[in-house]
Write a structure and sequence with these properties.
By secondary structure, the protein is an alpha/beta fold. The protein folds into 2 domains: about 160 residues, Rossmann fold (3-Layer(aba) Sandwich), CATH 3.40.50.300; about 100 residues, 2-Layer Sandwich (GMP Synthetase, Chain A, domain 3), CATH 3.30.300.20. Helices cover about 40% and strands about 25% of the residues. It contains 9 helices and 9 strands. The strands form 2 sheets. It has a 6-stranded mixed beta sheet, sandwiched between helices. Strands 7-8-9 form a 3-stranded mixed beta sheet. The chain is globular and about 55 Å long. About 35% of the residues are buried. The chain binds guanosine-5'-triphosphate and magnesium ion. The site of guanosine-5'-triphosphate (GTP) has 24 residues, from helix 1.
Amino acid sequence: MRSGFINLFGRPNAGKSTLLNFLLGEKLAIVSPKVQTTRHRIKGILTTDAYQMVFSDTPGIIDPKYPLHQRMMDAVRTALEDADLALLLVDVSSDLAESDQIFSQLKLNAPAWVLVTKSDKVGSPEVEKAVQFFAGKPYAKSVFSISSQREADRSRLLQALAEALPEGPLYFPADEISDAQTRFFASELIREKIFELTSEEIPYHTTVVVREFQEKTTLTKIVADIVVHRESQKAILLGEKGAMIKKLGTAARESIEQFIGRKVFLELFVKVRPKWRESELFLDEYGY
Ligand SMILES: Nc1nc2c(ncn2[C@@H]2O[C@H](COP(=O)(O)OP(=O)(O)OP(=O)(O)O)[C@@H](O)[C@H]2O)c(=O)[nH]1
Ligand SMILES: [Mg+2]
């Protein structure tokens, strides 16, 4: 049995969460076209007869501007420490030099491969140019291009990863897909809908806390707080006559139902906690 920790790093929006889901064949991590969607390290486990790969999605690497950011970068640091293999993701259409600078400053404890992502978005000369750009870099043991929309890319990468992993133990039970609890995924799926349905600062001033998670006989009852900084943001999230919170609740409920495979009763409340992102106390309470 080959096994190991394969941790994904990169700038916000590089496609880390999308790749995690694609490799697992399961939607585990939330995804959005906006930056800084992921705030936690999320483990996704892929076990076959031949290997166990424990992937970790991480928040996009940024310069921390407030304590929430610092906690996000702590999650990146921990993942850097325990990786057996680091996958450094860079969007083919992004500023390659910027990612290069970040990659070259990472405290890598393990071999690293650069993955040039979203290769379906551009022509092959542009992909090749990006691959060549990273090919000679001292931190890059290998360079691949990948699209999270092409099945052939998935099998090619999984095969290369399997060959690179050492003989090792089963770290998790073979049927486990993540180490996180369902209630965490519920809060993430609600947050994903907030990223989808609101704009500007709202997704960034918002967090979701699941207060109640009860598996009843016919359905799962979930009560969650959507926490914002300001009254004006609360008003936007509630919407005219509650239209926004209703839309959000329906969309979130449907995606949670799909995730857990059973009916969900979802109740949402919006709460104002000024500057929660800057409060170590609130960050602790909210699971960061
Ligand atoms: N066309 C195309 N789009 C992709 C691909 N991978 C990711 N995307 C899109 O890129 C955007 C960002 O993807 P995410 O997976 O959320 O990126 P991330 O690196 O996790 O971003 P953060 O969590 O903010 O750090 C989403 O709109 C994805 O749909 C890909 O292979 N091809
Ligand atoms: Mg992400």
